[in-house]
Amino acid sequence: MITSRSKITFRELTKRPACFLGLGFGSGLAPKAPGTFGTLAAVPIYWLMQDLPITIYLAIVIIAFIAGIWICQKSADWLRQNDPSAVVWDEIVGYLITMIAAPAGWQWMLLGFVLFRFFDILKPWPINLADKAIHGGLGIMVDDVIAGIFALVCVQWLYRVLPTISF
What we know:
globular, mainly alpha
């Protein structure tokens, strides 16, 4: 068990595979804005997955979510905190949800990033309700899943609306 994020070394983290994933391959150890750094860690993962058939992409996201419940709980237990900011696997999954069936291009990857962070930080209803009401590994995951769904809807809506706007 560890009591302070500052005491975690990368070597120590790699000895605990669940915590290595939970802390976003080390990105969650960023001293400021670990959620943003965790989401940044998701961008290359999405980049590798973006050309997969949608059924395989969705299967990976579902598996990442289900495994994430356990991964986040193990990481939180190791850090001895209920919802430590260093645990960013939920941000990775939330971003992957945001990018389901997203159009190709770096602009869409950036837009998805910004929208996901917007909803994850502001936590409008029902995200804030889920954040307060559900605890443990599931609670760590579920608010980011909802934020990802909100951002997904925005990305898809913008993709369908933007081509119809004439300047």
